[in-house]
DUF2158 domain-containing protein
Amino acid sequence: MLDTTIDVAEKPLAAMAGIGDVVTLKSGGPRMTVMYAGPVGFASGHWLICQWFDEHGELRQDMFAQDMVQIEPRSIPAAFVKMRRPAGGRAIGGI
């Protein structure tokens, strides 16, 4: 007898992040680039080593389990771009 529903059988598996993908933590946080994706010697499962720049411009790196992140689009919508203001006060590329 069939003991699973069609909903469960047709549910697509979540996409696995790979090298070069842009991800964010499901709990929130900065956009990160995946530098390594795969197994590690001390833990089971699929792991990601990600890099990103913090709010001070420092390069950061950490390791996350695949199920902790979600894949994001590689491009950023124009509404999310923030222009930097140099010491002179005019935006770079602005008028």
User: Anything to note?
Assistant: The two ends are 71 Å apart (CA to CA). The chain is about 5% helix and 35% strand.
